[in-house]
Amino acid sequence: MSSRQVEVEVSLIERVYQRRKEILAEAEREAKRIRRAAEEEAKRIKGEAEKAAKLIIDRRLRAARERILGEAEMEGRRKLMEAREEMVSRVFEEATKRIENLINDEERRDEYLEILSKLIAEAVERIGGSEFIISANERDLELLKRNLGKIRRSLPSRELKLTLSEEPIECLGGVIVESGDRLKVYNNTLDGRLLRVRRLLSAKVAERLGVIG
Amino acid sequence: MSEEPLISITERLDELLREAEEEARRIVEEAKAEASRIVEKARIEAENLRVEVERGETLPPLIEKEEEKAKREGEELLKRYEQRVEEMRRRAEEHFEEAVEMVVKEVLMR
């Protein structure tokens, strides 16, 4: 074998070994790239699953939290509303007591008679016409009988015919006025007025008490 | 005759390269198989997590903890409402007299 031949052989062997090295290195690089891509994909899959799980968990935790806090909120609002109602009721109870005291106070008879006159005047004006039948409880009927002339004189028109009913009604005080033909009725008893005032002015009373909002 | 050793060595070198390529293919195929196992394992774990969460198996301790926290907050909330109620009662007491007078006047047409 000539030295030239040996040189060629050595060179060939070196090139082949170099190429072999490159092939294996390239394969290792490719394998590494594939594993890395797989790990990234696995990470993405797990990440998405954890995100979805977190969403479900958060939703359930939020629901549990909202349920408990919602109940507490409702309970709080209920207490507030009950206290408000209680305060407003106390006002009406006290007002009723004071009205009863006035009605039963012999020394304030004139004051009460004046109130009865106003109640009759309002009813007469609302019903209209010229003839009226007035009903009241036993005590007020007596009072009205004794003062009917005075009441008639206090009304804007003196041409009106006022008749007192023979049958007493059950009420705290005040009057029920009917037209002469009994087709129109105006309930101006104090009980009726208390109910109306309660219906119409509860919000205003609450506002006056400072218990709104 | 003089070229015979060279031919022989060329064949051996070709064989070496073929082996290297074969080895390279094996390395890549192994990596692909491992990649499939990695991805498949992740999919199974993800599915298990989904099922576990859907069934609520992991939730009770978490929910209990959250409920405890919410209960404490709820108690605080109620306390604040009770304070508002007290404040409201105090304010109402201050204006009680004028509110009663307003109703009495309205009922008695004063």
Summary tags:
heterodimer; A: 213 residues; alpha+beta; hypothetical protein PF0899 fold; four-stranded mixed sheet; B: 110 residues; mainly alpha
Briefly say what this structure is:
Chain A has 213 residues and is α+β, with helices and mostly antiparallel strands.
Any overview of this molecule?
The complex is a heterodimer of chains A (213) and B (110). Helix content of chain A is 74%, strand content 9%. By secondary structure, chain A is α+β, with helices and mostly antiparallel strands. Chain A has a domain at 90-206: 2-Layer Sandwich (hypothetical protein PF0899 fold). Chain A has a four-stranded mixed beta sheet. In chain A, helix 1 packs across helix 4 (190-209) and helix 2 (109-127) crosses helix 3 (138-154). The longest helix of chain A has 102 residues, at 3-104. Chain A is rod-shaped. The relative contact order of chain A is 0.09. With 110 residues, chain B is an all-alpha fold. Helices cover 93% and strands 0% of the residues of chain B. The interface between A and B is large, with 76 and 72 residues.
Q: How do the helices and strands line up, and which of them pair or pack?
A:
The complex is a heterodimer of chains A (213) and B (110).
Chain A (H helix, E strand, L loop, with lengths): L2 H102 L4 H19 L3 E5 L2 H17 L6 E4 L9 E6 L5 E5 H20 L4
Parallel strand pairs in A: 1-2
Antiparallel strand pairs in A: 1-3, 3-4
Chain B lengths: L3 H52 L3 H50 L2
Number of helices of chain B: 2
The figure for the number of domains of chain B is: 1
- CATH fold-level assignment of the domain at 90-206 in chain A: hypothetical protein PF0899 fold
Along the chain, the helix and strand elements of chain A come as: HHEHEEEH
CATH superfamily of the domain at 90-206 in chain A: ATP synthase, E subunit, C-terminal
**Biggest beta sheet summary of chain A:** 4 strands, mixed
Q: Most extensive interface: pair and counts? A: A-B, 76 and 72 residues
Can you give the helix content of chain A as a percent range?
A: over 70%
Structural class of chain A: alpha+beta
Mean pLDDT rating of chain A: 94
Shape of chain A, please? rod-shaped
**Percentage of β-strand residues of chain A:** 5-15%
Query: What shape does the CA trace of chain B take?
Result: rod-shaped
How far apart, in Å, are the first and last alpha carbons of chain B? Answer: 144 Å
Oligomer class:
heterodimer
Low-confidence parts of chain A, pLDDT < 50 over ≥5 residues?
A: none
Q: What class, by secondary structure content of chain B?
A: mainly alpha
User: How many separate helices of chain A?
Assistant: 4
Radius of gyration of chain A: 49 Å
